[in-house]
Specification:
The chain is mainly α and about 80 residues long. Helices cover about 50% and strands about 0% of the residues. The protein is built from three helices and no strands.
């Protein structure tokens, strides 16, 4: 579904992306996204590059030890 799209609901960043971002962030921690899902990986990378999302990730770093499955040394 992500083929040809920049964001989840089209070309504009929206609430759909705000909702999908945390799920993709943590999902990749627990089970690496399979490389065959290149569009999903590219989408996650675009989310990680957004200043607002990057800021949220950076500000949450001190709390990673609370992640129940253990936080990897990667974003």
């Amino acid at each position: 579904h992500m083929e040809g799209r920049t964001w989840a609901a089209g070309e504009a960043f929206s609430m759909a992306d705000c909702g999908a971002g945390p799920f993709l962030f943590y999902a990749d921690w627990t089970h690496r996204i399979d490389p065959k899902f290149a569009n999903v990986i590219a989408y996650r990378n675009r989310l990680m590059a957004r200043p607002s999302f990057k800021r949220a990730v950076d500000e949450a770093r001190p709390y990673r030890h609370f992640f129940p499955l253990g936080a990897p040394d990667r974003d």
